Amino acid sequence: MLKHVMPIEAQAMNTNNQSAYILGHAQAEIERLKTQAEMLRPITERVLLAAGIGPGMRVLDIGCGAGDVAILAAELVGTAGSVLAIDRNSQVLATARERAEAAGVRQIVFEERSVETFRQGSFRSRNRPIPVDSPV
């Protein structure tokens, strides 16, 4: 007997018709993300540096998860810069806040919100607004 399998897109929708992180936010998944980020840190750092991230800049991390990229970006922008990191899951944000504090990084603001709600504003970088849906 064949079971009906929902398409991956349908599986990623919650009851409010908003997309959800398909792998979930259980502690095991958060740990997997942290391990993955640790392994990929040298590559991620090269990508951020190649993108021009440096001292004094403002960085936006959408879907920050456990905070690995946000923490790395905060290290690159230094105390003269700042990072706004958003995620829709409060549990993973609590982990990210704890990790940033343990790393001694104070120039990150973590906010619980989705990219859909963030689009109603804009993020200012180098004194000019950049729409969130703009290809950057």
Task: Describe this structure as you would to a colleague.
The protein has 136 residues and is an alpha/beta fold. The chain has one domain: 3-Layer(aba) Sandwich (Rossmann fold). It is 40% helix and 16% strand. The protein contains 5 helices and 5 strands. It has helices at residues 8-11, 27-50, 68-77, 90-102, 115-118; strands at 58-62, 82-87, 108-112, 123-125, 128-130. The strands form 2 sheets. It has a 3-stranded parallel sheet with strand order 1-2-3, covered by helices on one side. A two-stranded antiparallel sheet has the order 4-5. Strand 1, helix 3 and strand 2 form a beta-alpha-beta unit. Helix 2 (27-50) packs parallel to helix 3 (68-77). The protein is globular. The chain starts with 7 loop residues before the first helix and ends in a 6-residue tail after the last strand.
Concise summary:
The protein has 136 residues and is an alpha/beta fold. It has helices at 8-11, 27-50, 68-77, 90-102, 115-118; strands at residues 58-62, 82-87, 108-112, 123-125, 128-130. It is globular and about 35 Å long.
Per-chain topology:
Blueprint: H1 8-11, H2 27-50, E1 58-62, H3 68-77, E2 82-87, H4 90-102, E3 108-112, H5 115-118, E4 123-125, E5 128-130
Parallel strand pairs: 1-2, 2-3
Antiparallel strand pairs: 4-5
Helix pairs in contact: 2-3
